[in-house]
């Protein structure tokens, strides 16, 4: 009986140890893995920014913002990436920065970064309108130049036709 009881206790201990391992493995499942990885990428991007490696930071921040969102990480990454895009300058940098800030406001309306970026978003919106007006102005100028050339060519053709008409009149009178 004692041998049976010892074996029973041994089997019970082995089962308990195995179930403990299962619980431990369940706690660190693959579903939880992306979150620390995302936070690690973001922390590395911040370190790159501190070191002045903007290109490395940009690449990591782009990976963070395309991954499934994580409040406190993705919103911060969107804001910082928008600022880096603005450093590119020009219309493209402004558009990319504005679209990232618009995404920030849409996906994380209560984020501190959304509130911090509100004035910048309004400024970029007006800048985008300015770029649009400049494009329209450029198009109108090109059209105006084309029409001026066309008009000049038509005037020259009219003058040629007048000369031909005068020559025909002179020939008919002779």
TrEMBL record:
Q: Tell me which positions the record assigns to the signal sequence.
A: 1-24
Q: Which UniProt keywords are given for this protein, alphabetically ordered? A: Signal
Name recorded for this polypeptide: Tetratricopeptide repeat protein
Its taxonomic placement starts with: Bacteria, Pseudomonadati, Thermodesulfobacteriota, Desulfuromonadia, Geobacterales
